Amino acid sequence: MSKLSLITKGIIKENPTFVLVLGMCPTLGTTTSAINGLGMGLATTFVLILSNMVISAIASLIPSKVKIPCYIVVIASLVTVLQFVMQAYVPSLYETLGLFIPLIVVNCIVLGRAEAFACKNSVIDSALDGIGIGLGFSIALTAIGFVRELLGGLSVFGNKLCDGDGMLAFVLAPGAFLVLGYLMVLFNKAKAK
Amino acid sequence: MARESTLTNMVVTLFAVCLVSAALLGGLYALTAEPIAAAQTAKINTAIGGVVPAFDNAPSAEKFTVEANGKTSTVYPATKGGEAVGYAIEASSSAGFGGNITLMVGFLPDGTIHGTSVISHAETPGLGAKISDSGSHFVTQFQGKNPADPNFKFAVKKDGGSFDAITASTITSRAYIDVLNNAYNAFLNINKSEEAQQN
Lengths: 193, 199
Prior knowledge:
The complex is a heterodimer. Chain A is an all-alpha fold. Chain A is built from 8 helices and 2 strands. Helix content of chain A is 68%, strand content 2%. Chain A has a two-stranded antiparallel ribbon. In chain A, strand 1 and strand 2 form a beta hairpin. In chain B, strands 1-2-3-4-5 form a 5-stranded antiparallel β-sheet, with helices on both faces. In chain B, a hairpin with a 2-residue loop joins strand 2 and strand 3. Chain B is α+β, with helices and mostly antiparallel strands. Classes of the chains: A mainly alpha, B alpha+beta. At the A-B interface, helix 4 of A face helix 1 of B.
């Protein structure tokens, strides 16, 4: 498999949100605005790239019966690193994403890629896979956030388009499911062509 | 591929992985503890600066706590040339729709509300979260109002008060005003404790 296709398959063919349907909790929870979705996507991408690299490097040393605990320790440590760094240098983003940062640990995309890809492939290929899947996740979250923000708050990336309140339901949980569902249909329709 | 699992190598591997992670996190914590504390102080200072008139002291260095009706609030006194120009009071209420709402409320020395700023909340985005929108009518309607003034009742109109609530967010609006009342009670107690000192 070529290096480029390692990246593009994460964005289109194996898009974690629209095709694999993994990591639904942060997808539904953080996409109230495009910028929150993007922030969550990039935070997950960071953890995914590093965890894929570390796990692919140490996979051959780990006895198979304790591999899940080892992976979780690695992922949890990386998430805590991210949390410290965000808290210190981008406190405003940390506040918006707050609760969802620690939840990256249990995001099944991260553990899923560790199990399905990183432990069987080289460090570089695993990093590329992390970038691809991470970008796919970020794009999906930003798209959902964009639509919810537009319909629910009549604004784009925090800039108000016109006065008024929009359709409130889209900012709340039911809107997240609706937007996710419709985008999934559109995405898979476009992909099938 | 993965090695065969024996008790020894499982224990050793897990121990090694945990040890390396713990060392890494410990080191990073030491590195970031200072910027994190600085970021939090900066946030408090920005909030104070936004709710009291111009001052020339360092309110966050002179903070003290005040008890009022069983609730503890933090008071940041602002002075200019030694004269008190206002008090920024960090107060909270647990009556919010999503839990605690913490505000920085700025009072002039006579008890008039000069400004308010949200420190933290967990209200619904698009509804209660509008309390963070500092230019909105809901937030600005409190500026220049004195809770001691009998013309104003600090409650939402639905409860017979003088203030508009955010549409579809009455619980949040009530909690917001609850915080203001808590802050005002704390403010009253500052003056009491100062008078006690003067006498």
